[in-house]
Specification:
Length: 464
C-alpha cells in the first residue's frame, strides 16, 4: 500500500566488472602477474589469460554500455598493469590503457566508478608474504597515490578493496600470504583495514572533490528460527561478516561484537602503536556494497564440535559456540545453487542506512547462469531479467523507505569469467562468444536482458 517514490533523476544506472575477470591480455602491455595468474585452476575451468579480451575490445564494449544508456560503469584497475611487481617501477603502458578507457567512458558521458583492487594482488607481493607483511600496506598506499595522481582529474568515485570480507571468510584463497590460522587471517584483515584507511585519507588529501568508500559484500543474515540462541548467532555473524567492515570504514573502529568473537577464538590481530589512530584517520564518504543473496545461520552447539571445525572456520561457515550457515529453506535458487532473495536487498539497504546514514550505491547484484546462444544469434535470458526486475523493485522500495541510494550496478556489464566457475557461468547483458576452452570469435551479442535494461534506464526505472 505504499506510494512508490520515483528513482532520483540523477540515479546512476550502470553495471560492473573487474579487471582480471574481463580484460585478458594477462602478460601484455607490460603487465605483471597477479595471484589470479599464478594460482592453480581446476582442469575443467578456464584460466584468466584471455577472459573477455576487453583489453583489445574496450572501445566496442564501452559503445555497448553507452547504447544501453549506462550513466556509470564500475570497473577495477589491475594493480599489476600500473606497478607490475607491486612496489617498483610504474608501467606507462598500463596507465595509458586506463587513460584510454576512462576517456572513452567520458566521451559517452559515462561516469567512471573505479575499484582500485579486486582480488588481484601482485604475485610479487604475495611472494613476500602478501597481506601478512606490513610492507604490503605501503605498496598499496603508493599504488593508490599513483592512481589518484594520474586519473583523479577525471575519476570522482573510488572504491577501495573489493569484498575484503569475503576474502577473509574464504581465508587465504585469494589474498595471498598463505594464512592458515584464524589469527593470521585476521592479522591480514587488520593490515588491509589500515591500508584502506590510509588510502581514504590520501584520496581526501589529494582529491578534495572526489568521493571514496569501501566495497564489501553486505547481506543481511537471518536466524534460522526465533530461538534466542539462533537470533544471537545471527547477530554475531552479522557483526563478523558485515558490521566489522562497515564500522571500520565509517567510524574507524572494530565492532564490539566482532571483536569479542575474535577474542573468544584467540584471533584478535596484534596492533602496533599508532594503528588505532590510523584506522580513524581515513573514513568513507559513501557505502558501496555488493548483494547477491541473504544468508541464514543457526546456533552451533559446542558439543557438536567435529574434526572439521578448522575447515569450517576457514570457510567462515561455522564456528562452534557461535553460528553455522544453513539453507534458508523457503527461497528459490539459481541453477548454480545461489539463493534468490530480492526482499533481502531492501532489508540489507535499510540495515546499512539506519546504522550509518551515508549514501549507498549497489555495486554488484546479478544472476549467474548457463546462457544458450540460439542459431539466429539470440540469448533469451528471461531468468536474468526476472532476477534483476525483482531486485530493482526492492531498490525502489528501499528508496521509498527513505534510503539515500544513488546508483545500481548489476554484475556484470558484459560476460566475463566467474571467480570459480569459468565462462560457463555468465552474468552479463552482453554475450561474449567463447566457452571455457574454445575462444571462438569473442564477438559481442546483445542478450534479451540488454534490450530490457536499456528500457529500464531510459524510463528511469518505470518500465520494469
Ligand atoms: C562477487 C565478486 O563476489 O561475486 C565478483 O566481487 C564475482 O568478482 C561475483 O564474479 C560473482 O561470483 P562468481 O563466483 O559467480 O563469479
Amino acid at each position: 500500500h505504499q506510494t512508490l517514490r520515483p528513482f532520483p533523476n540523477d540515479f546512476l544506472w550502470g553495471g560492473s566488472t573487474s579487471a582480471y575477470q574481463i580484460e585478458g591480455a594477462w602478460n601484455e602491455g607490460g603487465k605483471g602477474p597477479s595471484v589470479q595468474d599464478t594460482k592453480t585452476i581446476p582442469s575443467d575451468t578456464s584460466d584468466f589469460k584471455v577472459a573477455a579480451d576487453h583489453y583489445h575490445h574496450y572501445k566496442e564494449d564501452v559503445a555497448m554500455l553507452a547504447e544501453m544508456g549506462f550513466k556509470t560503469y564500475r570497473f577495477s584497475i589491475a594493480w599489476t598493469r600500473i606497478v607490475p611487481d607491486g612496489d617498483g617501477e610504474v608501467n606507462e603502458e598500463g596507465i595509458q590503457f586506463y587513460d584510454n578507457l576512462i576517456n572513452e567512458l567520458l566521451k559517452h558521458r559515462i561516469e567512471p566508478l573505479v575499484t582500485v583492487y579486486h582480488f588481484d594482488l601482485p604475485a610479487a607481493l604475495e611472494e613476500k608474504g602478501g597481506w601478512s607483511n606490513r610492507a604490503t600496506i605501503e605498496a598499496f598506499v603508493r599504488y593508490c597515490g599513483i592512481l589518484f595522481d594520474r586519473f583523479g582529474d577525471r575519476v570522482k568515485f573510488w572504491q577501495t578493496i573489493n569484498e575484503q570480507n569475503m576474502m577473509i571468510l574464504s581465508a587465504g584463497a585469494v589474498i595471498g600470504g598463505g594464512a592458515t590460522t584464524m589469527k593470521e587471517t585476521y592479522q591480514q584483515n587488520h593490515h588491509m583495514l589500515l591500508a584502506q584507511a590510509r588510502v581514504m585519507k590520501e584520496c581526501h588529501d589529494k582529491l578534495p572533490d572526489a568521493k571514496i568508500g569501501p566495497a564489501p559484500n553486505i547481506s543481511t543474515i537471518y536466524p534460522k528460527t526465533n530461538d534466542p540462541l539462533d537470533i544471537q548467532a545471527a547477530q554475531t555473524f552479522n557483526a563478523v561478516r558485515n558490521w566489522l567492515y562497515l564500522d571500520m570504514a565509517v567510524y574507524g573502529r572494530y565492532n564490539n561484537v566482532a571483536w569479542a568473537f575474535l577474542e573468544a577464538n584467540n584471533a584478535t590481530p596484534d596492533m602496533e602503536p599508532g594503528d588505532e589512530e590510523t584506522l580513524k584517520s581515513g573514513l568513507a564518504d559513501f557505502i558501496a556494497f555488493n548483494y547477491y543473496s541473504s544468508g541464514t545461520v543457526e546456533y552451533y552447539p559446542l558439543e557438536e564440535e567435529t574434526d572439521s571445525v578448522e575447515a569450517d572456520q576457514q570457510k567462515g561457515q561455522g564456528v562452534p559456540g557461535f553460528f553455522r550457515q544453513v539453507e534458508h529453506g523457503a527461497l528459490d535458487k539459481t541453477e548454480f545453487g545461489w539463493e534468490i532473495d530480492p526482499e533481502g536487498l531492501r532489508i540489507t539497504a535499510n540495515d546499512i542506512y539506519s546504522r550509518y546514514a551515508l549514501p549507498l550505491v549497489i555495486t554488484e547484484n546479478g544472476l549467474g547462469g548457463r546462457d544458450t546462444l540460439t542459431e539466429d544469434g539470440k540469448i533469451h535470458d528471461t531468468y536474468r531479467i526476472n532476477y534483476l526486475r525483482d531486485h530493482i523493485k526492492q531498490v525502489q522500495l528501499a528508496i521509498t523507505d527513505g534510503v539515500e541510494l544513488f546508483g545500481y550496478c548489476p554484475w556484470s556489464a558484459i560476460d566475463l569469467i566467474s571467480t570459480h566457475e569459468g565462462f560457463r557461468k555468465r552474468y552479463g547483458f552482453v554475450y561474449v562468444n567463447r566457452s571455457d576452452f574454445d575462444l571462438k570469435d569473442l564477438s559481442r551479442l546483445r542478450k534479451d536482458s540488454f534490450y530490457w535494461y536499456k528500457d529500464v534506464i531510459a524510463s528511469n526505472g518505470e518500465n520494469l
